Sequence to fold (230 residues):
Amino acid sequence: MDFAIPEILLEVNVVSTVVRLLLSLVCGGILGSERGRKHRPAGLRTYMLVCMGSTLVMITNQYISARYPGVDVARMGAQVISGIGFLGAGTIIVTGRNRVKGLTTAAGLWASACVGLSIGIGFYWGAIIGCLLIFVIMSVLHRLDDQMQSSTKVIGLYLEFEHMADVGRFIRFSKECGYRLSDLEITKTNGVNDADIGVLCYMRLPKKEPHAEIIQKLSELEMIRYVEET
Fold:
């Protein structure tokens, strides 16, 4: 099967510029829609702008290299690859419970920029295939990743206790059940009661169990006022 691209779409002209920019909007929209449905920091418009902007950079770079021979055709594109890291870093946050969020969004923005660069230089098939694979990773494999993490032997916990003595009771309970606690960090909560104590820790289970069942078991303990997986 011949997938040859017409020469008019490989050169820098009005037709190729319109096609590339529109294709970048479509690809950016596909990737951004997945993030937007999950209410992530960067959504539809952000992904479209990143993809279209990087496409325009490569079109401009190709135009400059054609008009002024000897100019490095990849120079501006290289700046996009490194520069997009600043935008991606802005979507990564560490919550008050030491939970890192936004890594997939940041990686998606970087990948979206790469798709835009491919479109901008005329590598259409690479951009389309890459866009589809990135979409599959962010949407379909997201469910698989959640399923794998929901039944691992290690679970991150955030718990709240009324008194320090309850923390000791929880540690003893964990030992009796065969649970191993690590990286235990005690903090003050933002609750109305100044005596409230927050605990961040990792719990290693003796065997794989659904995390939902562990959370349910812990929530039924009288000593624990609140518990959630981190």
In short: The chain has two domains: 7-149, 154-229. Residues 124-149 form the longest helix (26 residues).
